Amino acid sequence: MESALTLWQSTGIANLTWRELLMLLVGCGLIYLAIAKRFEPLLLLPIGFGAILCNIPLAGIGGPDGMLGMIYAVGIETGIFPLLIFLGVGALTDFSALIARPSTLVLGAAAQFGIFATLLGALALNLVPGFDFSLSDAAAIAIIGGADGPTAIFLASRLAPDLLGAIAVAAYSYMALVPIIQPPIMRALTTKAERGIVMEQLRPVSRLERILFPLMLLLLCAMLLPAAAPLIGMLTLGNLLRESGVVDRLSRSAQNEIINVVTILLGLAIGSKLSGELFLTTQTLGILILGAFAFAIGTGAGVLMGKIMSRLTGRKVNPLIGAAGVSAVPMAARVVNKVGLEENHHNFLLMHAMGPNVAGVIGSAVAAGVLIALVTP
Amino acid sequence: MESALTLWQSTGIANLTWRELLMLLVGCGLIYLAIAKRFEPLLLLPIGFGAILCNIPLAGIGGPDGMLGMIYAVGIETGIFPLLIFLGVGALTDFSALIARPSTLVLGAAAQFGIFATLLGALALNLVPGFDFSLSDAAAIAIIGGADGPTAIFLASRLAPDLLGAIAVAAYSYMALVPIIQPPIMRALTTKAERGIVMEQLRPVSRLERILFPLMLLLLCAMLLPAAAPLIGMLTLGNLLRESGVVDRLSRSAQNEIINVVTILLGLAIGSKLSGELFLTTQTLGILILGAFAFAIGTGAGVLMGKIMSRLTGRKVNPLIGAAGVSAVPMAARVVNKVGLEENHHNFLLMHAMGPNVAGVIGSAVAAGVLIALVTP
Amino acid sequence: MESALTLWQSTGIANLTWRELLMLLVGCGLIYLAIAKRFEPLLLLPIGFGAILCNIPLAGIGGPDGMLGMIYAVGIETGIFPLLIFLGVGALTDFSALIARPSTLVLGAAAQFGIFATLLGALALNLVPGFDFSLSDAAAIAIIGGADGPTAIFLASRLAPDLLGAIAVAAYSYMALVPIIQPPIMRALTTKAERGIVMEQLRPVSRLERILFPLMLLLLCAMLLPAAAPLIGMLTLGNLLRESGVVDRLSRSAQNEIINVVTILLGLAIGSKLSGELFLTTQTLGILILGAFAFAIGTGAGVLMGKIMSRLTGRKVNPLIGAAGVSAVPMAARVVNKVGLEENHHNFLLMHAMGPNVAGVIGSAVAAGVLIALVTP
Amino acid sequence: MVDTPVGDLLLDGLWLMGIGLGVVFSFLLILVAILVLMSRAVARWGPAEPLAQSLTATAPVPGADPVPGAGHARVIAAITAAIHAYRRRHAA
Amino acid sequence: MVDTPVGDLLLDGLWLMGIGLGVVFSFLLILVAILVLMSRAVARWGPAEPLAQSLTATAPVPGADPVPGAGHARVIAAITAAIHAYRRRHAA
Amino acid sequence: MVDTPVGDLLLDGLWLMGIGLGVVFSFLLILVAILVLMSRAVARWGPAEPLAQSLTATAPVPGADPVPGAGHARVIAAITAAIHAYRRRHAA
Ligand code: NA
Ligand code: NA
Ligand code: NA
């Protein structure tokens, strides 16, 4: 009898709290979005699965002795996993479009307005009872507006580890929602004539330029903003492996083995921050609202800067490509292409949008560097 | 003169103990079995090599500062390596046969009788002078009957780390010996007519069912037996990566890079538990005897349950497929197929045996969960 | 105003020391050599990049909490990275040429004279003011003469971690310079007639011999020189994975995933020992000079032993192949082939030089073992 | 635990066996029930699926993560074409 | 930090916004300048490069790191040859 | 160690050189002997091996670990066949 009781008490049902039950449903929901809706499945599927695993009663998989807790300590607390992902991103990214038209970097800068506006928004939310975001919390939340997963995880693990789960979920969810969030804003802020602007073909970029680019970017970062050096360093290393042409083995490794393995482990480990106590709070609600806000503001700022560039260059720039400045590579560039095609069936903006798109990656890494340098957790 | 003595004293010969010599021979023997006899070479070759490395006098490769000792601490003490192997196994396993005929799960349950019978056997062996197995030792030894390498290593590393070397060697050796151990038992327990039973073709299984299966299994495990959640969790994650169809990159990574790299390191690290003091004991002899016993009992119980199912279904089930319930994927299923073909040259049982075969993997993971929950080391 | 000052003080320019600036240039120089001159790009590109990263002011990437510092602690302090590289080297190396003509091992032994002569040279350099090499420093420097990257890194990380950066840079640079350093020495020490000697074709080597070779080598090492067992152990494990033919999955993993990923991380981590304080010293100058010396002496000793073998065998051995005894696989063997072809356009020495070439790898691992056994840091 | 008389240990073992086999069987029987229900639910409410696809266990979803698989598929297609050419020519 | 009145926090936030956007814009504008100068320098002093190569972003450098790529390239070449054979025969 | 006069260090170094070279040569000479004996033993008692296989160092063992290698081998075989077809047709 006693033994039967012991057995019953070692089951999950007997120990399930409503928070855990809700989080199991959240985990299933994320997996549903990943599989059925193709919401960034490479990250949201492992994150959702991690959410389930670490909310299994008694198992303690997300705790300090559990598998996910240990992976978190080794890979995320140290910052190594997001940096290795950035290495892979660098090796997968072709910066030619940016090198051919460097002025698009300004679009990538403008779109980071979303980050800083969201920072203000998060602080203002403290006026609402129930919210209590510190400056470092607000900075970590704001980086969602950077629309760049590894940057968001890297910054959040430094400034607000407790919010990491919600921030990562919000960042990847909104990146998946880019095709829904961006087009109305893009249409609202541009005229039909502006959307129809056809841009000049990009000049070819020589191999030497593509090799020098990552080195220039790294040295500039070293001189101006050392706090961004880990992120920019890994991005440029990956890109140099790719463009140097002499270490194909290593480049392929960064693009495949490293990024794939780390993606699985990173996703699972984020799940260890999706326990009920950390996630089922009003803060999470605030983060989700602020995230949408951040994406919208960033898109708008990019498009408005696109309009300014369009005027200054005598309508040589289609302002739509400013929307790609938020990052969300390559989704945002594809959205630009699609909205552009709606006006003019022969106007392919994809390559033109890749410039601001990769500029957005650099821009949000720089913004993260500023926040790390000026905000102490 | 003195210096020559120093030099001599730093050689291996001058320091070789008979235990180390014997273990070097054991290592060579395992490598011989792996290469010449194809005994589970993916594991037994690294294990045998690890045995050689950590029995080299003076080198201390298996010690706390040696390479194998460090790999053991990072990968096996934490349980991460067997769990990553299980991730790969999940990504490599097609559960369609099980989904199409769920009743074969009962065969996978019956074959776990081998585990619990061996547990009793190990405890009974304490009556023989020289044996002194605690309950946790007995539980770790019993899991050999689960015929599943990663499960055995995971459980042994928790309940009886000192016996891990012998348990891993026994588990993989007997898995390689399945084609020799099982057929006589299968023939002895079945009639010619039973062995000739032709089974209906399996129905096709839809993609949605294959996606829902790992989630159902995980949630059931979370509700009933959280102690099995790490093992079942990684197995189902691997399978979901495979079946979801949206993360092929990650699925391939789990099936190849992760499982290959971890297999090398896991095998070597097991070698660090194959030192003379731990392995050359009467306990090891007991473990080897009990292991054979476990496989035989498990096979028998599976076949007997197969006979019961055959009667209950009006001879629609060939009882031979019960032997595949021990796991040992896919070896046991192939053995079933071979024994079946001996009776009827057109009776291909392979697909029918895959159901109980993968059910056996789940069954032994569940059994491991029970043992973890109820036995404290 | 104050804030602007704070901001300025967080830039790199405001904090850049001349040492850091010089090391940034050294890093760029290594990358230039890697890309433009193809100097061992697989290692020198990551090393050069690591040098840049860990000399960025304020960022502390090479420090104990920085990414490169952590990778160093995990991978190099423990010796695991060079050993994993050796695993890959073993899996990539075909020892057939050595098995077919074992006498070429003597050439691999002779070329290690470079190591011990350099050891004396490093100690003698203490007579010059400004140099102060201990015995363990000298041993770590001397291993550059082994012309084998992982061996040099493994030994230096044990005997003289502070010199590791300079030693690794010197070792890989001179390995890249083999086609420039070796030919004049080879021509100076041989006659035209000797260089023209045509060697007999190698006999075919059976699979069994190729399987037994790594085991024999490992057991000999275990009996005679346990201190070399980690290096020889990983080399022979890799080779056994390759030659056994039953674990192709693991062999491919060692040849690709493992070696590629570790190469990136190893290169970066070496960079963490390329800080200004450690590298910009007279010691580094001494190491660079001694390294060139080591290569030259090793080449000369190999060729002279080649001449002795040529005499003893009645001109059946072309003394040029002795130069390949330094290791630097496969560069040195290719150089031998090229110099040989200069005399006789139909005399292909490549396969004949592969024997001493891989013998050199074993020879320098043995020499490293001796130094580990007899020199305490 | 080591000092426990063997008899007590065997009793513990019997308990463990009973409970263990009970849990294993319960777990897998409930899983049988769940799978049967799941299959029925999928058959009734699930999306219609082309049979050809459902038969092949590893059928990739079109459009998903095409990067590395696609190249390989094209190689296979190329080879298949080449082989057909070869076979047809020999048959002719 | 938590006790700071929201007003002060918002002021800090405004400061951060000003400085942050300033740094981001400065950084990227300097990068624009550097890239423009770099491209001019490369165009003037850089090596002449065949255009075809510079157009393809991932063009491998001949002779570099041949080990794994080479085999694959040869496979592709073989297939191309086979396909050509197939096409020409069908065209004929 | 740093305070040791250079002369003493050099003496230590000479010792190390003598012993080191001695060990390296002994080790490799014994290895020569072992390899010679091994090859003789294999030639006398080893299994007869088809020469063609023993020539190629990486010849896979048939039936072993077929998963990834096999596919590749089949691709090569297919290509070889296709190429032969191509060559023969051109020769004809
Ligand atoms: Na961005
Ligand atoms: Na089992
Ligand atoms: Na060497």
From TrEMBL, chains A, B, C:
Name of the protein: Oxaloacetate decarboxylase beta chain
The enzyme's E.C. designation: 7.2.4.2
Subcellular localization: Cell membrane
Pfam families: OAD_beta
GO terms under cellular component: plasma membrane
Record's function text: Catalyzes the decarboxylation of oxaloacetate coupled to Na(+) translocation.
Keywords: Cell membrane, Ion transport, Membrane, Sodium, Sodium transport, Translocase, Transmembrane, Transmembrane helix, Transport
Sequence intervals crossing the membrane: 16-35, 42-63, 69-92, 104-126, 138-156, 163-181, 211-237, 258-279, 285-305, 356-375
Protein topology in the membrane: Multi-pass membrane protein
Catalytic activity: oxaloacetate + 2 Na(+)(in) + H(+) = pyruvate + 2 Na(+)(out) + CO2
GO terms of molecular function: decarboxylation-driven active transmembrane transporter activity; lyase activity
GO biological process, one term: sodium ion transport
Chief subcellular location: membrane
Subunit structure: Heterotrimer of an alpha, a beta and a gamma subunit.
NCBIfam families: Na_pump_decarbB
Family as reported in the entry's similarity comment: Belongs to the GcdB/MmdB/OadB family.
Top-rank taxon: Bacteria
Top EC class, one word: translocase
